[in-house]
Structure to design on (202 residues):
């Protein structure tokens, strides 16, 4: 099917509206990497998920239902609070860790974790830690490099090599390597939709 021309429906859900029988794909990554912006870009909406230039905007696990017109297929896309924001207090970091642990290891855990990383920077320890966590927890994961509009070709080549080094198993799940995405230029949007559907298995 041609995804580019498809009109998707994305609705934010209240807790009681979540259908736990549907597959979940979660967006994870450092604070400010562009998770919420990515969701808005996917949905062609400005304020579906709240974004901010100040890290730490998203504070809870937010569920969105994705529906495809004319199809029964649906899944949940989940916007997670970011990690690695240095100005957070210890108690805030502990709260984040508990929330993530509860979600990622709980009975209602996601099927796939999309790990968003800033395409301008080499792999950061906290991102590698999340990859390790997913691996150990048996969660599928895939990598998306954000802010592609600010990445040079040199950045892109470097990221591909670095991530292959850090996580050679990435290519088992994701043969093409990290996807470069921009919510400003919408580069990679259609490819990301395809990957998300694939990741959700719908
Ligand atoms: P937390 O909720 O704090 O975890 O952050 P987040 O990952 O949800 O980031 P958010 O989407 O709120 O975006 C953070 C900042 O990055 C905002 O100022 C966005 O405008 C900017 N941003 C997000 N995506 C892109 C992108 O693709 N390109 C550029 N140039 N800026 C982006
Ligand atoms: Mg956010």
């Amino acid at each position: 099917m041609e995804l580019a021309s498809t009109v998707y429906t994305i609705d934010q859900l209240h807790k009681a509206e979540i259908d736990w029988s549907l597959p979940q794909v979660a967006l994870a990554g450092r604070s400010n990497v562009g998770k919420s912006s990515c969701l808005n870009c996917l949905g062609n909406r400005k304020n579906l998920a709240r974004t901010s230039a100040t890290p730490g905007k998203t504070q809870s696990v937010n569920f969105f239902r994705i529906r495809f017109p004319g199809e029964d297929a649906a899944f949940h896309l989940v916007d997670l609070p970011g990690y690695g924001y240095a100005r957070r207090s210890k108690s805030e970091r502990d709260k984040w860790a508990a929330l993530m642990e509860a979600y990622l290891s709980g009975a209602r855990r996601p099927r796939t974790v999309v790990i968003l990383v800033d395409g301008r920077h080499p792999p950061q320890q906290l991102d590698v830690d999340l990859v390790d966590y997913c691996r150990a927890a048996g969660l599928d994961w895939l990598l998306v490099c954000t802010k592609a509009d600010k990445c040079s070709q040199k950045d892109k080549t470097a990221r591909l090599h670095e991530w292959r080094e850090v996580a050679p198993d990435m290519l088992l799940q994701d043969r093409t390597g990290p996807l470069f995405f921009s919510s400003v230029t919408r580069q990679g949007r259609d490819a990301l939709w395809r990957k998300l559907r694939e990741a959700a298995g719908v």
Notes: Residues 90-105 form the longest helix (16 residues).
